[in-house]
Write a structure and sequence with these properties.
By secondary structure, the protein is of the alpha/beta class. It folds into two domains: 163 residues, HUPs (Rossmann fold), CATH 3.40.50; 117 residues, Elongation Factor Tu (Ef-tu), domain 3, CATH 2.40.30. Helices cover 28% and strands 28% of the residues. Strands 9-17-14-15-16-13-10 form a seven-stranded antiparallel sheet. A six-stranded parallel sheet has the order 1-4-3-2-5-6. Helix 5 packs across helix 6 and helix 7 packs antiparallel against helix 8. The longest helix is centred in the N-terminal third of the chain and has 16 residues. It is elongated.
Length: 308
């Protein structure tokens, strides 16, 4: 997958079939759009393209309200990996600024989608809005087809268990610890990607957790599940294993992600590790509490017996 940081760089894309949006989570609704992009790209002998933005527009437009505490399902690195797995050809990551936010919907289509990319098809999701004050929508795209020489298409809203899927609903499920519900909405496992560091910790000064690593977050706005113990799969270049993640507050009262790897005696880890979350097993555990060893041992045994 090609990654571009400006429209100018992306002018090399052949017969672009384009969509735009944050695509936080790359959930089942996003995948429906991406699959349609791939089909249309093949039809037009072209390439699929996502135009996305960094930072998230809410962070820029509403820094003291809606964007202040906004947490995102994926870091930029995680989103890129998920988009590549979904089969996207190109992603254009545009820096979102207040100046950029003032571009009208028609100007965006005229100057960028048509003028720079020469888009063949523009695909949007249900109820998608874009441009200054979110004035642009599918009806506008439909009206501009002939003027700017492209085809417009809208993808219907997607449902899981008769519920409409949205990044907002997924964020809520994750923040409340409903991992299996979030995974159903996502159509893949909630993930954390990071570079692990060896972590030595003795419960009550006597019991060691072997093969324990901390996984630092790469972005402050990454959304974490609540404190607790989770069943995960652990993957890196060297490892494919079951594992247990403990999310807790460290001595500085900051969330910390610890992973205990099960099936590898002495894992040698370099580079990134990906944690695939399957299920919440236990609520918050105070690692300095005298009951912590028993709780962790029980959780570990339960995870070991799970089939996944």
């Amino acid at each position: 997958m090609n990654i571009y940081r400006s429209f100018e760089e992306a002018k090399v894309i052949r017969n672009p079939v384009v969509t735009t949006g944050s695509f936080d989570g790359v959930h089942i609704g996003h995948k429906t759009i991406l699959n349609r992009l791939k089909m249309l790209a093949e039809k037009h002998n072209g390439e699929s393209v996502l135009i996305t933005f960094d930072p998230h527009p809410r962070k820029v437009l509403y820094p003291e309200t809606a964007g202040k505490d906004l947490k995102l399902i994926n870091s930029q690195e995680e989103k890129i990996e998920l988009l590549e797995k979904a089969g996207l050809n190109n992603v254009i990551i545009i820096e979102f600024t207040r100046e950029f936010s003032k571009i009208t919907s028609e100007q965006f289509v005229k100057d960028f989608l048509h003028g720079m990319l020469n888009a063949r098809v523009i695909v949007v999701g249900f109820n998608h809005h874009f441009g200054f004050n979110k004035e642009g929508d599918y009806k506008h795209l439909w009206a501009w087809q002939e003027k700017y020489n492209f085809e417009a298409e809208e993808i219907p809203e997607q449902e899981v268990y008769h519920e409409t899927v949205s990044s907002t609903k997924i964020r809520q499920a994750i923040s409340e610890g409903y991992i299996q519900r979030a995974n159903a909405y996502l159509d893949h496992y909630y993930i954390i990607i990071g570079k692990p560091k060896e972590y030595s910790f003795y419960l009550q000064g006597t019991i060691e957790l072997p093969r324990l690593f901390s996984v630092p977050l790469t972005e402050e706005c990454k959304l974490l599940p609540p404190a607790g113990i989770y069943a995960v799969s652990v993957e890196s270049e060297q490892i494919h294993s079951k594992g247990m993640v403990i999310i807790h507050k460290n001595t500085e009262d900051q969330p910390e992600v610890l992973v205990n790897i099960f099936d590898t005696p002495e894992p040698q880890i370099s580079g990134n590790m990906t944690l695939y979350f399957h299920k919440k097993i236990h609520g918050a555990v105070n690692l300095s509490d005298s009951n912590a060893p028993a709780k962790i041992s029980i959780a570990r045994d339960e995870i070991s017996e799970l089939i996944y």
